[in-house]
Specification:
It is a single chain. By secondary structure, the protein is of the alpha+beta class. The strands form 4 sheets. The chain has a 7-stranded antiparallel sheet with strand order 15-12-14-13-17-18-16, with helices on both faces. Strands 5-6-10-8-9 form a 5-stranded antiparallel sheet. The structure holds flavin-adenine dinucleotide, (2R)-2-hydroxypentanedioic acid (2HG) and zinc ion. Flavin-adenine dinucleotide binds next to β3, α6, β10 and α14.
Length: about 500
């Protein structure tokens, strides 16, 4: 009886003029003018962008929120809210839950699987106005920050304290720490610092009913039952909105160095990795693979400083090796003796190597690797497959995909221009990019499920680091068993029975 009364009261609080979203996001409602009037009680007008409001925002201002970085996924949201505090987030979410309005949490919108933009007209909740560092302890190295802090700004904040964020990626100038946590981003130094499942110590999360789950611990050890925060790391905003992050920063290395190695053939990558690990051991911090085609695209589009063309004639691929350690002399000695042994070997694994001899050269070599995604996007529309496969299959995956597209007569200037591979060798993570003149249903049909079946044949993962988003919901079964998917659905239903939190993402 009591619960029925309670239910009636909730229904009465729902404004009468409301509309349904079109098919696809079943049971969810669109934002109305009445909803905006309610949001105006929670937020200042500067935090509300809406084409519905009396002083309507021009829809062009909503475009950067409705379209993803690749210009592949497009939403039709009418409203973006930019709360400044966890309390504001909580009040917005509580209202949306009662009204059954879908919410898309959005960080820097650099995600590559369409997870951060609406499928239809869900409300966008941007964390951009929550960008304060809450605390930093330079003894323990524990940093507590708002979820909307941009990764680069956290790196800059920590520099004078001689610490670094244990995560680095090409999108660092735009992506937010909350987005990184929500995608469980890997990046360029996972080899050294491990995954965010290890370095994130605590989270503050607004749950889909508006409750604030405060697990912002700054303890390194805490074995008191279930570790709930792990559920939100990599949940892509489907279980709640991350508003605060506690992360273990790493001591800044005293010395960093890098070298770009040109290899005559792909088969040398695996023995080279073994040898580099053996010789550099504790100072090795990155080992990144770049195939020849994508290297040439990076040079064409001005990313980093090109190596001398004569030196790299005949090179089939490249590897960028980075060292980070505590003693410059010791590290340089190790790197030099590695290079010497590689060059003088009877059957050399490399053609040549370019060792950075200044901070500017160090950055220029990294800029080649970090600029690959941008180079590819300047060349055309990229279908991105972010996969885990055994290292010795990296090239095979790229070649088989290219041959498959050729067999479908899709490998030409007006369809697929390039099939390239790059990635994180130490993590077994290949970025297969199919660069096309345009996104077309024909190319997509040729690629899927072909790529997913290929990955499954190697018992790999269809998403090593970018997540599932909207791109791969239909393909989840290639990497997760029916039992795992069933339990994922149960967890989703438990946290978000109304299905408002990033609807249509991750789960089919
Ligand atoms: P968004 O794109 O805004 O969102 C991503 C997902 O997280 C969405 O599902 C969104 O709903 C959810 N989300 C965002 N913020 C929150 C929050 N506060 N609470 C709950 N959910 C939230 N990824 C890698 O793993 N490694 C790389 O090396 C890498 N390099 C990249 C290089 C470039 C040039 C680009 C464009 C992307 C790269 N990415 C990489 C992908 C992307 O940058 C990462 O996934 C990044 O972590 C996304 O952060 P973001 O703030 O932009 O999140
Ligand atoms: C990287 O490692 C990113 O550079 C992006 O994860 C990969 O562009 C891509 O496909
Ligand atoms: Zn990557």
């Amino acid at each position: 009886m009591l619960s029925r009364q309670l239910a009636r009261r909730v229904v009465l609080r729902v404004p009468r003029r409301w509309s349904h979203s079109p098919a696809g996001l079943t049971g969810l409602n669109s934002v109305t003018e009445e909803d905006l009037a309610h949001f105006a009680k929670i937020l200042p007008s500067s935090s509300i962008l809406s084409t519905l409001s009396p002083s309507a925002t021009p829809s062009s201002e909503l475009e950067p929120f409705n379209n993803d970085w690749m210009d592949k996924y497009h939403g039709k949201s009418t409203t973006v809210l930019k709360p400044r505090t966890t309390q504001e987030v909580s009040e917005i979410v509580r209202w949306c839950n009662q009204r059954k309005i879908g919410i898309v949490p959005q960080g820097g919108n650099t995600g590559l699987v369409g997870g951060g933009v609406p499928i239809q007209d869900e409300l966008i909740l941007s964390l951009a106005n929550m960008a304060k560092v809450r605390s930093f302890d330079d003894v323990s190295g524990i940093l507590v920050a708002d979820a909307g802090c941009i990764l680069q700004s956290l790196t800059d904040y920590l520099a004078p304290h001689h610490h670094i964020v244990p995560l680095d990626l090409g999108a660092k100038g735009s992506c937010q720490i909350g987005g990184n946590v929500s995608t469980n981003a890997g990046g360029l130094r996972l080899l050294r610092y491990g995954s965010l499942h290890g370095s994130v110590l605590g989270l503050e999360v607004v749950l889909p009913d508006g409750t604030v789950l405060d697990q912002l611990t700054s303890l390194r050890k805490d074995n008191t039952g279930y570790d709930l925060k792990q559920l939100f790391i990599g949940a892509e905003g489907t279980l709640g909105i991350v508003t605060g992050v506690s992360i273990l920063a790493a001591p800044a290395p005293q010395a960093s160095n890098n070298v770009m190695l040109a290899l005559p053939k792909f088969e040398n990558v695996q023995p080279l990795y073994k040898e580099v690990k053996r010789q550099l051991s504790e100072v090795l911090s990155a080992f990144e693979f770049i195939d020849r085609t994508v290297y040439d695209l990076a040079v064409k589009h001005g990313q980093g400083r090109a190596l001398n063309p004569q030196d790299i004639e005949g090179a089939e691929c490249f590897v960028l090796v980075e060292t980070s350690g505590g003693n410059r002399e010791h590290d340089e000695q190790k790197l030099n003796s590695l290079l010497e042994s590689l060059m003088l070997a009877e059957e050399p694994l490399i053609n040549t190597g370019v060792l950075a001899s200044s901070p500017a050269q160090f950055s220029a070599l990294w800029a080649i690797r970090e600029g690959l995604t941008e180079a590819v996007s300047k060349e055309g529309k990229a279908y991105k497959y972010d996969i885990s496969v055994p290292l010795n299959k990296f090239q095979e995956v790229v070649d088989k995909t290219r041959e498959h597209l050729r067999s479908k007569d899709l490998l030409h200037e007006n369809a697929v221009k390039y099939v390239v591979g790059y990635g994180h060798v130490g993590d077994g993570n290949l970025h297969l990019n199919v660069v096309a003149a345009a996104y077309t249903p024909e190319i997509e049909a040729a690629l899927e499920p072909f790529v997913y079946e290929l990955v499954a044949s190697y018992r790999g993962s269809i998403s090593a680091e970018h997540g599932i988003g909207v791109m791969k919901t239909h393909a989840l079964q290639y990497s997760k068993s029916p039992t795992s998917i069933e339990w994922m659905k149960k967890i989703k239903a438990l946290f978000d029975p109304n299905g408002i939190m990033n609807p249509g993402k991750v789960l089919p």
